[in-house]
Write a structure and sequence with these properties.
247 residues; alpha+beta; L-fuculose-1-phosphate Aldolase; seven-stranded mixed beta sheet; 8 helices; 13% strand
Length: 247
């Protein structure tokens, strides 16, 4: 049920559903990690989870509004986590194409980010989805306070690169909508898991040729409505269970 006088209600509901499903898939990390969604034209005002809230309890009405250009943000009573401000504030300030940003320390993406070579070779269809569409950060500098957030955001300047593999840290996924970004987050974790498990066999990898990997990536990008339907089905499951995410 929509709350009176709360703007961007549908966006809030979508984001809350993404939080709930991320927790269900065990891709969250305690009360850390953050998702954000721009709500103005230049992307500098955005919705975000409250400071240190458990993903599995977040409701649409809980989400806070943050202004990336407001230096007083961290002094308010409803201030975001300083690392969330550092990373997401910088992304929304400098990357207007990144309307939505999802940062997690999910297991397989983080294992990939912990390897000396964090590339994701196109060994299956899911891995091919990300062919030439990610950036690897090889220069982890500590917690994502403002200086680190500014550095990380600069790596996402190319709108084609929608995944930042954060070396020694985790992954940051960006997109235009909650549905698109969550779908990309889900499939990146699946791709990373496939690759890590393939490495564990010790057998040679069957790597796709570059032209086939690129063709596959383009075909998947053009695949109709998968992201919207994915999120819609998640919300249907939550609704059928009587979840309070949309309150």
């Amino acid at each position: 049920m929509k709350h009176a006088n709360i703007d961007n209600w549908q966006e809030r509901v979508d984001l809350a559903a993404a939080f709930r499903w991320t927790e269900r898939l065990n891709m969250h990390e305690g009360v850390a990690n953050h998702f954000s969604l721009a709500i103005n034209d230049d992307g500098t005002r955005f919705l975000m989870n409250p400071n240190q809230s458990y993903f599995g309890r977040i409701k649409a009405s809980d989400l806070i509004v943050v202004d990336a250009n407001d230096p007083e943000t961290l002094r308010g009573p409803n201030a975001p986590d300083p690392t969330a401000w550092g990373l997401h504030g910088a992304v929304h300030r400098h990357c207007p194409h990144a309307r939505c940003a999802m940062h997690v320390h999910s297991i397989f993406a983080t294992v990939l980010a912990s390897l000396a070579d964090s590339r994701l070779p196109p060994i299956d269809q899911n891995c091919a989805t990300f062919f030439n569409r990610y950036v690897i950060d090889d220069h982890y500098g500590g917690l994502a306070f403002e200086e680190e957030g500014e550095r990380c955001s600069s790596l996402l300047a190319d709108p084609k690169k929608r995944v930042l593999i954060m070396g020694n840290h985790g992954v940051l996924i960006v997109g235009e909508t909650v549905a698109e970004t969550f779908n990309r987050l889900y499939y990146f974790e699946r791709a990373a898991e496939t690759y890590i498990r393939a490495l564990q066999t010790g057998q040679p990898l069957r790597v796709l040729p570059d032209d086939i990997a690129e063709k596959t990536a383009q075909e998947l990008e053009a695949y109709p409505e998968q992201d919207e339907r994915h999120l819609s089905e998640i919300k249907s499951v939550l609704d059928a269970e009587g979840s309070d995410y949309a309150t």
